[in-house]
């Protein structure tokens, strides 16, 4: 039988001995995970899947009707209703940890549960465990998203993430679908419809929280497989991110070092992730040389969100390497990258390097890059433009104002917060391009 070691205990709890200790071999393994959704479809499918025994139903909170793609319903109705239960289930999960380092939150922003209940839970974590890092993997809606109110939900949710998260790793369906297409030799495969990459829901009141990263969509086998492949890319990103916490290495990087080294200002904590080689459940396109590993990770096609960091300014960057890569390989590629990448003037050497000796299964090596880069502001601008197209016409506002506890002023406050965030990144871009400190310009949103 497999040994239950420290690497496995990072994400899993093993069966207990008679005196309360953990068994030395794998037995009754359960994930250190809390699953939350305000409808039962996706979670129900998860508990019918091959992974059904991995999750502990004691750490499960669901409802029936869903949040109706409404942030206010998720935040104020379900957040209030399940506030005590959320606190309690997190407390019980935390008590099973020997050395709690970090909370990972995985949720979408376009729907009601992911954005509303998700950010409510983030507030609980900030209040109850203020010294524990909170890293959020947030699914940004695509431009062709079929949730009408997703611009509202996204802006309201981002306001909470900006204030409460330590780091946000945004991903989107469009970028992930492009990766799958390239793995299969085609980049023209359409994006699966649905509120988030985690799963697609065909119930009357769609919910897009879909927290379990491995959930299989309900609608069809074809779409389900597509979402599984996309989820696998995100799961690999999280595995690479936590590899130093699980395995030995020459330059290990703790989770707290990510925020410490990549976030120079509290609000500017949105990190663009990229990884090489491209891999999904059944396919891997491994580069022939180590140098290609680094070159690929700094191209647009390998970013987990639709952005091109190399054309913009870096505040800081992390290289998290796994496998058979030497220190000289890393140094050589950093020197090469510094010649073509643009960093802010006050952080020219803004690299954080980690090297884990254990490679991913089936690969000789891999590279995860995390970039605090001004390219993210383009996504913020797209979201703001979509938001104002609805907000200027007061469309669908009554769905939010009818929810007890919701204040109409939250729309303007959240939009202003996102606009300020855009301006902060934009100012750093201009300072680097011009070598000056320009006056802060007011963002103009096209109608």
TrEMBL record:
Domain Tubulin/FtsZ 2-layer sandwich intervals: 251-385
PROSITE patterns attached to this UniProt entry: TUBULIN
Keyword GTP-binding appears in the UniProt entry: yes
Record's keyword terms, sorted: GTP-binding, Microtubule, Nucleotide-binding
Compositional bias (Polar residues): 198-212
CDD domains: epsilon_tubulin (cd02190)
GO cellular component: microtubule
Single GO BP term: microtubule-based process
Gene Ontology MF annotations: GTP binding
Every Tubulin/FtsZ GTPase domain range: 8-249
InterPro entries: Epsilon_tubulin, Tub_FtsZ_C, Tubulin, Tubulin/FtsZ_2-layer-sand-dom, Tubulin/FtsZ_GTPase_sf, Tubulin_C, Tubulin_CS, Tubulin_FtsZ_GTPase
Pfam families (UniProt xref): Tubulin, Tubulin_C
Region called Disordered, residue ranges: 186-212
Family membership: Belongs to the tubulin family.
Name of this protein: Tubulin epsilon
UniProt organism field: Clonorchis sinensis (Chinese liver fluke)
């Amino acid at each position: 039988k497999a040994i239950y070691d420290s690497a496995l205990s990072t994400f899993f709890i093993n069966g207990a001995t008679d005196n309360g200790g953990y068994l030395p071999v794998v037995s009754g393994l359960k994930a250190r995970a809390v699953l939350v959704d305000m409808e039962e479809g996706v979670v129900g499918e998860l508990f019918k899947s091959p992974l059904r025994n991995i999750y502990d139903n004691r750490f499960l909170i669901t409802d029936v009707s869903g949040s109706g793609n409404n942030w206010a319903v998720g935040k104020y109705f379900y957040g209030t209703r399940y506030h005590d239960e959320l606190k309690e289930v997190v407390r019980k999960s935390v008590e099973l940890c020997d050395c709690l380092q970090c909370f990972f939150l995985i949720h979408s922003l376009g729907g009601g549960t992911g954005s509303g209940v998700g950010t409510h839970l983030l507030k609980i974590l900030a209040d109850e465990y203020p010294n524990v890092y909170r890293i959020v993997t947030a699914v940004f809606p695509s431009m062709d998203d079929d949730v009408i109110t997703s611009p509202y939900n996204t802006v309201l949710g981002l306001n909470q993430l900006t204030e409460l998260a330590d780091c946000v790793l945004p991903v989107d369906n469009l970028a992930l679908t492009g990766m799958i297409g390239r793995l299969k030799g085609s980049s023209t495969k359409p994006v699966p419809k649905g509120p988030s990459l985690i799963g697609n829901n065909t119930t009357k009141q769609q919910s897009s929280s879909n927290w379990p990263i491995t959930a299989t969509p309900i609608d069809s086998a074809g779409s389900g497989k597509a979402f599984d492949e996309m989820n696998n890319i995100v799961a690999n990103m999280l595995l690479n991110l936590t590899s130093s916490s699980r395995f030995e290495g020459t330059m290990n990087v703790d989770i707290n070092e990510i925020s410490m080294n990549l976030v120079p200002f509290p609000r500017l904590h949105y990190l663009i992730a990229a990884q090489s080689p491209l891999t999904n459940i059944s396919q891997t396109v491994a580069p022939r040389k180590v140098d290609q590993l680094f070159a690929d990770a700094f191209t647009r096609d390998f970013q987990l969100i639709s952005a091109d960091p190399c054309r913009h300014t870096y505040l800081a960057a992390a290289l998290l390497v796994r496998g058979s890569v030497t220190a000289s390989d890393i140094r050589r590629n950093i020197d090469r990258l510094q010649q073509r990448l643009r960093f802010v003037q006050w952080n020219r050497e803004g690299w954080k390097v980690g090297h884990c000796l254990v490679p991913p299964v089936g690969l000789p090596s891999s590279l995860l890059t995390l970039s605090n880069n001004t390219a993210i502001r383009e996504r913020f601008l797209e979201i703001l433009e979509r938001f104002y197209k609805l907000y200027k016409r007061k469309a669908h506002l009554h769905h939010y104002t009818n929810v007890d506890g919701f204040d109409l002023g939250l729309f303007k406050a959240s939009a202003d917060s996102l606009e300020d965030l855009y301006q902060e990144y934009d100012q750093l871009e201009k300072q680097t391009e011009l070598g000056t400190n320009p006056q802060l310009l007011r963002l103009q949103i096209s109608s």
